[in-house]
Structures
1.
Amino acid sequence: MFETIKDQIGDVKKIIFVTGAGISQESGIPTFRGKDGLWRNYDAMKLATIDAFYENPKLVWEWYNERRKNVFAAHPNQGHKAIAELEKYAKVMVLTQNIDGLHQKAGSTEVLELHGSIIKIKCSVCDFRDEILTEFSEIPPLCNCGNMLRPDVVWFGEPLPQNVWQKAIVSASECDLMVIVGTSLVVSPANTLPIYAKQNNALLIEINPERTEMSSDMDLTIRSTSALALPKFISVLKEN
Ligand code: APR
């Protein structure tokens, strides 16, 4: 799988993983656009936007409550664990579009959540925010200030947290290897991260069972699932 680039990855120092829903698929969390995609049953624009939240907060919260239940029951898979283990051998940072916290659960310590976290909740008006691991009995849940609470995630049309995005761009621009795992690379600005890496002459590797819009820009594409490919990739890196 990785023989062709074995020597090229020999002396990489800074490795960035850009991950998407596909890396959590083998933990039982459906992707958005893949064949088992979440969006197949729902219209994303009716559930993951600020307008949808104010138009029908109950529906949006029903969807997020269901997803929260799924996430709380999910465990990191071999792909998450391989990335976490790699921290013993190289400088690793994970730039994830996922909101499920599985990279952190697997032991990764350098994780930027580009689209926020479904475990974190914030008030839609005041500055209250907290990690809440229990289910809400009544929805939409209310803040002590009386306004609706919402998942601390980035909805379509909302900007990414500026401090997080700035750090992500800097890391992508400084790495010498970027591994893009389980993402269709259709959502911006996350899908610009490989461009920043390429501008720094980083090696680009894509791990995805399906082709993506940027597959032809990659130095190596591994048509495999992440739970199968990542442990193999890590063992090649460890040999160097
Ligand atoms: N291993 C690796 N990749 C996989 C696996 C797997 N087991 N299963 C599916 N995939 C791939 C699919 O082929 C697809 O290319 O994962 C990708 C998932 O793509 P999307 O469903 O579009 O998810 P993602 O790229 O993370 O979406 C980006 O869009 O909906 C918004 O905010 C949401 O963060 C999300 C963003």
2.
Amino acid sequence: MAATDSDRDIRIFETAEEVARAAADYFAEIAEKCISAEGRFSVALAGGSTPRRTYQLLASDEYRNRLPWSQVHIFFGDERSVPATHADSNYRMAEEAMISLLPIPEPNVHRMVGEGDAVANASLYEGELQSFFDGDTWPRFNLVLLGIGDDGHTASLFPGTEALTEARAWVVANWVEKLKTYRITLTAPAINHAGNIIFLVAGAGKAERLREVLRGPRDPLRLPSQLIQPVAGSLVWLVDKAAAERL
Ligand code: 6PG
């Protein structure tokens, strides 16, 4: 049973495995609701290592048989500047852990292209989102999954980078000087227009940063995770005990 936090929806679990399971349940519940209401479910996946277990669970018998996967549309919140076969590719991680194991039609998997020109790839992805969310001013993902990096970044919204002040674009190529690379990322307003947002945070290494993000003064240029504030949707924090240690 998760402990909750009164001012925000922060759910604290004993283990990272329980966090992964809670995220898979949340994913399945929202997907079921959206599919019965709208006939489709759109989700933007997170990269990094924390969500891998959630993706594996979703591909396990328990969840695989629960959802009509042909009505699920998979998008990505961010991507590294690497091809889909590269070990650092967020697409590759999701593909191996989940996508390849589920009956999701190929056109429903909307990969951010990581190889080649990042600026062109970002605009290509924005075009793909615009045709999916036809006529909307902002993308309206049913669910966006996010993590927090050690430096407070989320998606590929890194501290001090240009993407943090982007107010119009849905997707940008964001130069990350400390990594000397572009990342393609949804912008904060594009994320904030989602119906549901979940942060998955696990491990003692995240404890101090999570405290700063949630309890520290507002300083989103240094702590970009603080930019995530849904316009009308819900935001839930699924956190393990180790990461919640300093809250
Ligand atoms: C990425 C991300 C990123 C990630 C955090 C947490 O591509 O790296 O999408 O924002 O969610 O860095 O990553 P971990 O789960 O590996 O700690």
